[in-house]
Write a structure and sequence with these properties.
Length: 124
């Protein structure tokens, strides 16, 4: 082996059997490949998934979905009478993050949010 090839492949000789095995295996189309559909923590299998697009196909998909779920729960509790400070303590977030979560959920929660903020300012 010469110097140029030993630097590229770390100087380890490859086995001829490994090269022959990869060359003899055909590259099958997806419909002829069999794989285990193990699913994820949200569904038992990919074919029974409740989501239209896999959460793992999108960048930060799972994180985004969990955050939206958290924000909806914050909005639900806020509309049920919970205060900003209580929600911040419950979720382990700052009051400003609770405000952002309420703003991002929907226009209905922003209406409730503005009414609540008026009441909070009056009490302080």
């Amino acid at each position: 082996m010469d110097l140029a090839t030993s630097e590229i492949d770390d100087g380890e000789p490859k086995l001829e059997e490994e090269e022959e095995a990869t060359e003899s295996e055909p590259d099958l189309p997806p419909e002829y490949c069999h794989y285990r559909d193990e699913g994820c923590e949200f569904a038992d299998s990919c074919l029974n998934c409740p989501f239209t697009q896999c959460l793992y196909d999108e960048p930060r998909g799972k994180q985004r979905w969990l955050k939206e779920l958290r924000n909806k729960e914050i909005a639900r509790l806020f509309s049920g009478g919970w205060g900003m400070r209580e929600l911040a303590l419950m979720f382990g977030l700052s009051q400003r993050t609770i405000q952002r979560a309420l703003k991002s959920t929907s226009s209905i929660s922003s209406l409730i949010y503005s009414q609540k903020m008026d009441r909070n300012e009056e009490t302080e």
